[in-house]
Automatic annotation (TrEMBL):
<feature type="domain" description="HTH tetR-type">
    <location>
        <begin position="10"/>
        <end position="70"/>
    </location>
</feature>
<dbReference type="Pfam" id="PF18556">
    <property type="entry name" value="TetR_C_35"/>
</dbReference>
<dbReference type="Pfam" id="PF00440">
    <property type="entry name" value="TetR_N"/>
</dbReference>
<protein>
    <submittedName>
        <fullName>TetR family transcriptional regulator</fullName>
    </submittedName>
</protein>
<dbReference type="InterPro" id="IPR009057">
    <property type="entry name" value="Homeodomain-like_sf"/>
</dbReference>
<dbReference type="InterPro" id="IPR040611">
    <property type="entry name" value="AlkX_C"/>
</dbReference>
<dbReference type="InterPro" id="IPR050109">
    <property type="entry name" value="HTH-type_TetR-like_transc_reg"/>
</dbReference>
<feature type="DNA-binding region" description="H-T-H motif">
    <location>
        <begin position="33"/>
        <end position="52"/>
    </location>
</feature>
<keyword id="KW-0238">DNA-binding</keyword>
<dbReference type="InterPro" id="IPR001647">
    <property type="entry name" value="HTH_TetR"/>
</dbReference>
Length: 198
């Protein structure tokens, strides 16, 4: 019975997040109301509040779900270039930047921020969780295994640099994704191997 309840709750959460995703992608985050999410998800407002508690909690869960999808894709790109730090970094960053360009939710968040609405953007930039913490933990675990010849301090600095620079380029792109990815990868490699690779 407990497993059934957990399954129903998981389906409910996905239903709510799917509805919120569509609404934010279409109309932006600023005008989003819990009543609209409940209507779009086909549930009562009370059920929505019981599950999430607030619009901010919905936003946090929405960003976390998108991040998890990004991380799966990033892991795939990194694994395809295991042992080649700069190539792996370029592939992972390139994938992330291109997904950010193509993702309707992220496009909506960035357009809203440029118009002065930045509530949801804060999840990507000023709040340390979920984006920075989750991404850095995943990349640090990968880097520890894939780049064993990089010392711990350099590895930590390289991981932080790649995450922060990638988020910065998502929020304020200055070049096409491929070019930005190459530059970020080069910076990462120089941090990891300050004297050049032996």
């Amino acid at each position: 019975m407990t497993r059934f309840r957990e399954s129903v709750r998981s389906l409910l959460r996905e239903q709510v997040l799917d509805a919120a995703y569509r609404l934010v992608a279409d109309d932006g985050w600023g005008g989003l109301r819990m009543a609209a999410i409940a209507r779009a998800a086909g549930i009562s407002r009370q059920t929505l509040y019981n599950e999430f508690g607030s619009k901010e909690a919905v936003g946090n869960a929405l960003v976390q779900r998108e991040l998890e999808g990004f991380l799966v894709g990033i892991q795939r790109e990194l694994d395809a270039h295991r042992g080649e730090l700069e190539a792996a970094a370029a592939a992972g960053v390139g994938y992330t930047l291109q997904q950010a360009v193509d993702n309707p939710l992220i496009k909506s968040v960035l357009l809203a921020a440029r118009g002065g609405e930045d509530d949801l953007l804060a999840y990507l930039t000023t709040r340390p969780e979920p984006v920075f913490g989750t991404a850095m933990a995943m990349l640090d675990a990968y880097a520890t295994e894939a780049w064993p010849d990089v010392d711990e301090e350099s590895r930590g600095l390289a991981v932080e640099a790649i995450v922060r620079l990638t988020v910065s380029h998502i929020v304020q792109p200055v070049a096409p994704p491929e070019e930005s990815a190459r530059r970020i990868a080069r910076i990462t490699a120089r941090i990891a191997y300050p004297g050049g690779r032996a």
